[in-house]
Design brief:
By secondary structure, the protein is α+β, with helices and mostly antiparallel strands. It is 31% helix and 28% strand. It folds into four domains: 2-89, Rossmann fold, CATH 3.40.50.20; 125-179, Dna Ligase, domain 1 (2-Layer Sandwich); 190-317, ATP-grasp fold, B domain (D-amino Acid Aminotransferase, Chain A, domain 1, 2-Layer Sandwich); 326-425, Glycinamide Ribonucleotide Synthetase, Chain A, domain 4, CATH 3.90.600. The longest helix is centred in the middle third of the chain and has 21 residues, at 238-258. The relative contact order is 0.13. Bound molecules: adenosine monophosphate and glycine. Glycine is lined by residues 211, 225-226, 284, 288-289, 291.
Length: 426
């Protein structure tokens, strides 16, 4: 089959790498893709925001399946628009992508269908939000309702911080995404990311991961899109997975169907594992980046078969096989990230590091005059597998150290919690 993949990051490189191993694949196109994706796909210049242009391309190239990587096009309704042209798409409808596009929508769904999550209020004006904070006190969490590229959340330890965050939000710090806010209870526990492959009715667990949002070692410094991840997440024991399916994922699938917006695609649950069990922090409606990279390293099955089964509503008949190995990815970023990254520095030596159980996924690269250069904040995802997280970590950092890129940096402690846990167990 001919497949068009939309997106340009490390997540999409991992998806392209995995799909390219499928015997079902005839030809893979990627728009816009990146130089790493270009090793396994033909890169096409398409304006992904122009849904008719994407549809016309699909008709011309006889595309059998469109795989949407990032949330932006999903929330903008690309899946619906392409389906209206008769094109098969892996990814949720606009109505179902509200699980990521509106935090208030998700909180109301949780309330209606008894899904465990932090207590909350939804507010469209400053005065009523402040009054709520006065009533419940700090610590408290303030969230812009809409998509804010991971920057719309403030954990406020005092009421003053909470009020300042509310003011910023209503003054337009996040544009239209902040016209409404969710104010919610501060949860404590261990976080985990839980992924499911969904076809509108059935959700199949697709693995667990833990990411590292802060830029600096020891979880310090500003938030980023993610500086590294590992899979599986040790906190997600079989019992915790079973509870998460029963208490969170399955009621969400039933609730979305009841609201007339059945969810098909990747459901990415950000969880807090509290003393009372798993609670939903937020949903995303696509793979995590860089979580996808570690999941793809561990997936034994043919990704294209699974995505097709999800599109065709056939997941009730499927199961998913995983490698027992652990996988870990280290994000190498360009100096300046998560502020303005330096672009254009030359990266050498990538061809020498890939091998058994080591893959380098491109996240923000470009080719300039024949040389590979940095072209974004998060630039490379150096990914390795091992019998334990510790072994995967050692392999990934050995590869990082062989990459010749003076202007790049990474955290040196990705996986620290899992490695400490492994050491304590032995
Ligand atoms: P989000 O952008 O919704 O993923 O939130 C970013 C981060 O804020 C999460 O990964 C959590 O670490 C933290 N967070 C969000 N909501 C809460 C909450 N209710 N209680 C504690 N931490 C939270
Ligand atoms: N790594 C977090 C995300 O993709 O949202």
């Amino acid at each position: 089959m001919n497949v068009l993949l939309l997106g340009s990051g490390g997540r999409e490189h991992a998806l392209a790498w995995k799909m390219s191993a499928s015997p079902l694949l005839t030809k893979l196109y990627a728009a816009p893709g990146n130089p790493g994706i270009g090793r396994v796909a033909e890169l096409v210049k398409l304006d992904v925001a122009d849904h008719s242009a994407v549809a016309a391309f699909c008709q011309e190239k006889q595309i059998d399946l469109v795989v949407v990587g990032p949330e932006g096009p999903l929330v903008a309704g690309i899946a619906d628009d392409l389906r209206a042209w008769g094109i098969r798409v892996f990814g949720p409808s606009k109505a179902a992508a509200r699980l990521e596009g509106s935090k208030g929508f998700t909180k109301d769904l949780c309330a209606k269908f008894n899904i465990p999550t932090a207590a909350y209020g939804r507010f469209g004006d400053l005065a009523s939000a402040k009054a709520y904070i006065e009533k419940v006190g700090a610590p408290i969490v303030i969230k812009a309702d809409g998509l804010a590229a991971g920057k719309g959340v403030t954990i406020a330890m005092t009421s003053d911080e909470a009020n300042a965050a509310l003011e910023a939000c209503f003054e337009g710090a996040f544009g239209a995404a902040g016209a409404e806010v969710v104010v919610e209870e501060y949860l404590t526990g261990e976080e985990a990311s839980f992924f499911c492959l969904c076809d509108g009715a059935t959700a199949l667990p697709l693995g667990t991961a833990q990411d590292h949002k802060r830029v600096g070692d020891g979880d310090t410094g500003p938030n980023t899109g993610g500086m590294g991840a590992y899979s599986p997440a040790p906190v997600m024991t079989p019992e915790m997975t079973e509870r998460t399916m029963r208490e969170i994922i399955e009621p969400t699938m039933r609730g979305m169907a009841e609201l007339g917006a059945p969810f098909a695609g990747i459901l990415f649950a950000g969880l807090m594992i509290t003393d009372q069990g798993p609670k939903l922090i937020e949903y995303n409606t696509r793979f995590g980046d860089p979580e996808c990279q570690v999941l793809m390293m561990r997936l034994k099955d043919d990704l294209l078969i699974l995505l097709n089964a999800a599109v065709d509503g056939q997941l009730a008949h499927m199961s998913i096989r995983w490698s027992d190995a652990a996988a870990l990815t280290v994000v190498m970023a360009a100096r300046g990230y998560p502020g303005t990254p330096e672009k254009g520095s030359v990266i050498r030596g990538l061809d020498q590091v890939e091998g058994e159980g080591v893959q380098v996924f491109h996240a923000g690269t470009a080719v300039n005059g024949g040389a590979l250069v940095a072209n974004g904040g998060r630039v490379l995802n150096v990914t390795a597998t091992g019998k334990t997280v510790g072994e995967a970590q050692a392999k990934a950092y050995a590869a990082v150290d062989r990459i010749d890129w003076a202007q790049g940096f990474c955290r040196r402690d990705i996986g620290w919690q899992a490695v400490a846990r492994e050491k304590a167990e032995n």
